[in-house]
Design a protein that fits this description.
alpha+beta; two-stranded antiparallel ribbon; T-fold; single chain; seven-stranded antiparallel sheet; 6 helices
Length: about 240
């Protein structure tokens, strides 16, 4: 996935669970990265694999990407560039797969972050304080989110440059500095954050009109911060 991974499991005493999670993520990256020449995704994008030869997981990802494109009216698309690139879906999907592995091993309180997309879970009193980096200043936060069982996804160009393509114009999306979406599913939050970033000034209206339980925060190019009406309930009183 070409990005950093952090995992905190407060109750873990055996490092084996961390090894299992990182091995799973390495396997996912090796199979579904469009940046690896011999990955299944790259072979499929080059037309070297017919549909009947694809793995069950890749068939699922292709179908989910098509559904996400339809649900966002084309604002999210794995076919935005010259080749099939499901990275915008796979990152959230990978987090979800890793979260299920962690829980299967008996840990229900954890925080997993991949490239700034986060799944935070708590089965007890633990509350995770998640800082959303301000795109204009790495030493500042745009918000601090209080999370017990919450997914947080952020899209923007401030870390990786102009990499998010508007599927309709085929040009990089660059109206906003960042968009953060919170909600129950990291897969859905990730798709919505990408689509909202592409939609620019219509981002908050778009997020507000999506499935119940998802809220958003936008940082404009001038540093102004706006959020949907329900976002404030997730924020720390310190912000």
């Amino acid at each position: 996935m070409g990005t950093g991974v952090t995992l905190d499991i407060p109750a873990a005493r055996d490092p084996a669970i961390f090894d299992k999670v990182f091995k799973l993520l390495e396997t996912i990256d090796g199979r579904f990265s469009p940046y690896k020449k011999n990955s299944e995704v790259s072979k499929y994008a080059r037309g070297e694999l017919s549909r009947w030869r694809l793995s069950r997981e890749l068939r699922h990802i292709i179908k989910a990407c098509k559904s996400s494109e339809a649900a966002t009216n084309g604002a999210f698309s794995a076919w935005a560039g010259d080749n099939f690139d499901p990275s915008g879906y796979v990152k959230g999907w990978a987090i979800d797969k890793a979260a299920k592995l962690i829980e299967k091993n008996g840990y229900n309180t954890y925080c997993l972050s991949i490239g700034g997309d986060i799944k935070a879970a708590s089965s007890g009193e633990k509350t995770w304080n998640i800082g959303v980096q301000h795109p204009g200043d790495k030493l500042k936060t745009a918000a601090t989110i209080l999370a017990k069982n919450l997914a947080i996804a952020t899209s923007g160009n401030y870390e990786r440059g102009l990499h998010i393509i508007n599927p309709k114009t085929k040009e990089p999306a660059d109206t906003l500095s960042s968009v953060t979406v919170v909600g129950p599913s990291i897969v859905t939050a990730d798709v919505l954050a990408t689509a909202a970033f592409v939609l620019g000034d219509f981002a908050l209206n778009f997020i507000g009109g999506q499935a119940k339980g998802y809220e958003g925060l936008v940082v404009h190019k001038n540093g102004q911060i706006e959020m949907t009406n329900g976002f404030d309930k997730y924020q720390s009183a310190l912000d």
